[in-house]
Amino acid sequence: MVRYISLILLIGLAWGQNTFYIELLNERDYPMFINKTGEYNIKAGKSMRILKMKGVTNSSKIERIDWKTKNSFYWSDRLRTDNYPVVSPSSYTRNGVGYSMVGLLPEMKGTMVTIYGIYQNQVDSVNIFIQ
After folding, report:
1. Which of 32, 63, 111, 129 makes an SS bond possible with 42, Cβ 3.0 to 4.6 Å?
2. What whole-number distance in Å separates Cα of residue 93 and Cα of residue 62?
3. Choice between 76 and 4, residue whose per-residue pLDDT is larger
4. Strands 122-130 and 40-42, sheet pairing
5. How far apart are CA 70 and CA 126, in angstroms?
6. Are the CB atoms for 96 and 57 separated by under 8 Å?
7. Phi/psi class of residue 71: alpha, beta or left (left: φ > 0; alpha: ψ in -120 to 50)?
8. Helix, strand and coil in the chain, % to nearest 5
9. Can you tell me the distance from the alpha carbon of 106 to that of 30, in angstroms, rounded to the nearest whole number?
10. Which of 128, 101, 114, 98 shows the shortest CA–CA distance to 35?
């Protein structure tokens, strides 16, 4: 019996150390909900929506998390058009947690944004639908 409990604890500890996941934080209380499929639905406003991505590595070391979007987005002031980075490209962890900022423009209404968090050989993603 003791061997089984030790084995379960060892597997649980090993599993917890290698997991990586990301989540979207709504610290400014924008109107938002998560649907049945796990997609974030946020209402577009008249100004930019600023949110935060949280990546958890469960590592005590300082580690790098890279952030990318599935599609490219562009911003224009009618004089020029430029690539718009929806999420900051990288962040570093402290105590196993790293953060990155996300900016959603009002012009992105009706689009789906997929954000990928990449840590070592692990990838996680979130889908954000802007209503």
Report:
1. 32
2. 5
3. 76
4. parallel
5. 10
6. yes
7. beta
8. 15, 50, 35
9. 13
10. 128
Predicted TM-score (pTM) above 0.70 = yes
Contact present, 93 and 55 (Cβ < 8 Å):
yes
Task: Supply angle C-alpha 13, 15, 16, rounded to 5.
Answer: 65
**Domains, in order of start, for the chain:** 20-130 (2.60.40)
Residues 6+ positions from 114 with CB-CB distance below 8 Å: 69, 70, 71, 125, 126, 127, 128
104 within 8 A of 115, measured Cβ to Cβ = no
- Three-state secondary structure call for residue 6: helix
Residue 95's contacts (CB-CB under 8 Å, 6 or more residues apart) are: 60
Task: Convert 111-126 into a string of H (helix), E (strand) and C (coil).
Answer: CEEEEEEEECCEEEEE
Q: What's the chain's average pLDDT? A: 88
Q: How far apart are CA 67 and CA 76, in angstroms?
A: 23
